[in-house]
Design goal:
The complex is a heterodimer. In chain A, α3 packs across α4, α3 runs parallel beside α5 and α4 crosses α5. In chain A, the strands form 2 sheets. An 8-stranded mixed beta sheet of chain A has the order 6-7-8-3-9-10-12-11, with helices on both faces. Chain A folds into 2 domains: 236 residues, P-loop containing nucleotide triphosphate hydrolases (Rossmann fold); 88 residues, no CATH class. Chain A is built from 10 helices and 12 strands. Chain B is built from 13 helices and no strands. The chains are: A alpha/beta, B mainly alpha. Chains A and B meet through α3 of A and α8 and α9 of B.
C-alpha cells in the first residue's frame, strides 16, 4: 500500500463540561487512510465519530495527539496555513438542508472551492461547474436556483459536487446518507461508490449504519466512547468480528435476506457518560464476556488471526468470541 | 383568467411583478404604505424643490418682514423677510441630505463591527461591544451636541457624529444574528471549503444577517432627522439663515409670543410629518421583515 494520505496518532479531543470536568469525545485514536482507500467509521450516536471527522479536518482543535496529512503535520499548524490545504481535504455534511448557504445559487456553491483554490477564467469555471453537476447527475436547470428549491437528495448531490470540485486527496463524509429518505439514499450511495472507485481520494466515511458502511468501505473502524475498539478489512471484520462490541453491533444489524436466521445479542444498559469514563476497558460495563481484570486494566491492541486489530483483554485467552453468526 | 393562468405566470412583465409585490406590501402593512407615501411626497419636494419653490429660500425681502400667510407668501415670511413656504420645501433636502448619509455611515461602521464581534466572540467581542455600549450610555443629543461643538460647526460634522453615534444599533442587531448563525452548518461547511475569514463574514454571514439591520434603517433615519433638527434648533451645526427646519424653528421661536406663529409652526409641521412618515414606514418594514411580528398581527 502506498504512503498514507492521512495518519492520525493518539488523537484526543475533549470539551470543557463545566468546572474541572470534561467531555472526552475522542480518546487516543490511531488510524490511517491510503490513497484511493475508503475507511468506514461506525459507532453509535455519541461515540465521537462526527467530532473525530471535524478534528481531523481542523474544524475543531485537537486536544492531544497528531494529525499528519499528505506528509505534513497539521496538528498545530496555524489556521492561515491550513486554509490552502483545504483544497486537498474536503467534507460532506450530514444535513444537506443546512450545509449550504441559503442565499447562494447552486452554481456559486459548487464553484466556490474552485474560486477559492484554483485560478480559472470565468468560462473555465463555468465549464467545470457544469461538468461537476453532470457528474453528480444534477440537471443544469438547477444551477441558477437557490438551495430552497431543491430536494434533500439533490442538495446532497450539490454537497458532493462541492467536495469533489478541487479533486481533493481526502474527503470526510459525515453520515452523508442518514438524513435522506431511503429511496434517495440508494442513489447517493451509488454515486459515492462510483466516486470512490474512480477518484484517487482517500475517503473517511462516517456512519452508524453498518449496511451502508459495508457497501462502500475497504476497511472499517469501530468506535466506542471515542475509542477505536476494532479496525480491519471490511470482509474480515464482518465475517469474524473479534471485539465483543463489534459482535453485538453486527448481531443487531438485520441481514438483507429475511430467510437468514440471526442469533441476536442485545447489549444491556446504556452507553456510559463520556464525562466519567469507565476505568480499565471502557466497554466492561456492558460487555458480556468481561472478567474482573477488565475493570482495572486498560486493554492493549491485539492483532487477531483474521487480520483485524482489536482492543480487548480477552483476545489472548480466546474468551472474546461469544457470538457466532448462524446461517440456516 | 382561470384559463391561461399558466402562460400569464410565465409572461408577466417586470412591471406587473413589481406592482403585485407592491399591492401585497400595502395589504400586509397599510401603515407602511402610508409612511412610504409621506416619505415619497417629501422626496418629490426635495427633488423638485427648485421648480416648486415660488421664491428663493434665502432671498430677503426687507420690505416684507414677518408678513402673515397670504396669496404671495403662502406660509408668510420670517424675520429676515424670507419666504417660509419656499424654505420649508427646501428644508426637505436637508432632511434627506443628513438622514441618508448618516444611516449609510452607521451601516458602514455598525455592520462590519457586528459581524466581526459576533463571529470572533471572546475578548474582541467584549471590547467592541463594551465600547459601543459606552457610546449609548450618554443621552445621544448631549453627546452629539458636545462633539459637534468641539469638532466645528458644519453639515459634514453633523452627519459624521450622527452616523457614528447610531452605529451601535446596527452592530447589536447584526451581532445577534451572527451569534445565531456562526455555529450553523453552512458556516462550518464554508470554513471546510477553505473560505478565508473575510469571505465567511461578507459573503456567507452578511447576506443572512443583514435583514434585521435593514429593517431598522427607516426608524434610524427618522432618528437622524429628529436629532439633526434638534441640533440646529439648539444652534449647533447648521446655522440660520440656512433653510433647515430645526434652524427655522429656532428663528421662529422668538416670534411665537408676539403672535407671528407661522415662522415656527410650518417647519415644525414639516418635521413632524417627515419623522412620522419615516417611523410608520420603519415600523411596517420591521413587521414585513420579521415573520414572527407579522404573525402576531
Amino acid at each position: 500500500m502506498s504512503q498514507p494520505v492521512l495518519t492520525v496518532r493518539g488523537l484526543c479531543k475533549r470539551f470543557p463540561a463545566g468546572g474541572d470536568r470534561f467531555v472526552n469525545a475522542v480518546n487516543h485514536v490511531d488510524l490511517s487512510i491510503a490513497r484511493g482507500e475508503t475507511l468506514g467509521m461506525v459507532g453509535e450516536s455519541g461515540s465521537g465519530k462526527s467530532t473525530l471527522g471535524r478534528v481531523i479536518l481542523r474544524l475543531s482543535e485537537p486536544t492531544r495527539g497528531s494529525i499528519e496529512f499528505d506528509g505534513q503535520d497539521i496538528t498545530k499548524m496555524p489556521k492561515g496555513r491550513v486554509r490552502p490545504l483545504r483544497r486537498d481535504m474536503q467534507m460532506v455534511f450530514q444535513d444537506p438542508w443546512s450545509a449550504l448557504n441559503p442565499r447562494m445559487r447552486i452554481r456559486d456553491l459548487i464553484g466556490e472551492p474552485l474560486k477559492l483554490h484554483m485560478r480559472l477564467s470565468r468560462s473555465e469555471r463555468d465549464d467545470r461547474i457544469e461538468a461537476l453537476a453532470r457528474r453528480v447527475n444534477l440537471s443544469n436547470a438547477y444551477l441558477n436556483r437557490t438551495p430552497a428549491n431543491l430536494s434533500g437528495g439533490q442538495l446532497q448531490r450539490v454537497c458532493i459536487a462541492r467536495a469533489i470540485a478541487t479533486e481533493p486527496k481526502l474527503i470526510v463524509l459525515d453520515e452523508p446518507t442518514s438524513s435522506l429518505d431511503l429511496s434517495v439514499r440508494a442513489g447517493i450511495l451509488e454515486l459515492l461508490n462510483e466516486i470512490c472507485r474512480e477518484s484517487r481520494a482517500a475517503l473517511l466515511f462516517i456512519s452508524h449504519d453498518l449496511g451502508t458502511v459495508r457497501m462502500i468501505s475497504d476497511r472499517i473502524a469501530v468506535l466506542y466512547l471515542g475509542e477505536v475498539v476494532e479496525q480491519g478489512r471490511a470482509e474480515a471484520l464482518f465475517e469474524n468480528p473479534s471485539h465483543p462490541y463489534t459482535q453485538a453491533l453486527l448481531s443487531a444489524h438485520l441481514p438483507a435476506d429475511p430467510m437468514v436466521k440471526v442469533n441476536r445479542h442485545v447489549l444491556e444498559g446504556e452507553v456510559p457518560s463520556p464525562i466519567a469514563l469507565p476505568s480499565g476497558c471502557k466497554f466492561h460495563t456492558r460487555c458480556p464476556v468481561a472478567i474482573d481484570r477488565c475493570r482495572s486494566d486498560v486493554p492493549e491492541v491485539h492483532q487477531v488471526p483474521t487480520g483485524q486489530h482489536a482492543r480487548c483483554l480477552r483476545i489472548p485467552d480466546g474468551g472474546n468470541i461469544y457470538h457466532r453468526k448462524q446461517t440456516a | 383568467m382561470a384559463y391561461g393562468a399558466q402562460t400569464d405566470l410565465a409572461e408577466r412583465s417586470a412591471f406587473s411583478v413589481f406592482w403585485n409585490r407592491f399591492v401585497a406590501v400595502v395589504r400586509l402593512s397599510p401603515t407602511a404604505a402610508i409612511g412610504l407615501f409621506i416619505i415619497g411626497v417629501f422626496g418629490l419636494l426635495a427633488f423638485l424643490a427648485p421648480w416648486i419653490m415660488p421664491h428663493d429660500p434665502v432671498a430677503a425681502y426687507t420690505d416684507r418682514v414677518l408678513q402673515a400667510p397670504s396669496a404671495e407668501h403662502w406660509f408668510g415670511t420670517d424675520g429676515n423677510g424670507m419666504d417660509v413656504f419656499s424654505r420649508v420645501i427646501y428644508g426637505a433636502r436637508f432632511g434627506f441630505g443628513i438622514a441618508i448619509p448618516a444611516v449609510l455611515l452607521s451601516l458602514a461602521i455598525g455592520v462590519p463591527v457586528g459581524l466581526i464581534a459576533g463571529y470572533r466572540g471572546g475578548y474582541l467581542d467584549e471590547i467592541l461591544m463594551r465600547f459601543f455600549d459606552g457610546l449609548r450610555v450618554f443621552p445621544s443629543i448631549i453627546l452629539a451636541l458636545a462633539v459637534v461643538a468641539a469638532t466645528g460647526q458644519s453639515l459634514f460634522n453633523v452627519i459624521l457624529v450622527l452616523g457614528l453615534l447610531d452605529s451601535p444599533v446596527f452592530a447589536r442587531v447584526v451581532r445577534a444574528e451572527v451569534l445565531a448563525l456562526r455555529s450553523s452548518n453552512f458556516v462550518e461547511s464554508a470554513v471546510a471549503a477553505g473560505n478565508p475569514t473575510w469571505r465567511i463574514l461578507f459573503v456567507h454571514l452578511l447576506p443572512n444577517a443583514i435583514q434585521g439591520a435593514m429593517a431598522q434603517t427607516a426608524v434610524r433615519a427618522a432618528w437622524a432627522v429628529r436629532i439633526s433638527a434638534t441640533l440646529a434648533f439648539l444652534g449647533v451645526g447648521i446655522q440660520a439663515p440656512t433653510p433647515e427646519w430645526g434652524a427655522m424653528i429656532r428663528q421662529g421661536a422668538e416670534f411665537m409670543v408676539s403672535g407671528q406663529w407661522w415662522v415656527a409652526v410650518y417647519p415644525g409641521l414639516a418635521l413632524i410629518f417627515m419623522v412620522f412618515g419615516l417611523n410608520l414606514f420603519g415600523d411596517g418594514l420591521q413587521d414585513l421583515m420579521d415573520p414572527r411580528r407579522r404573525a402576531a398581527k
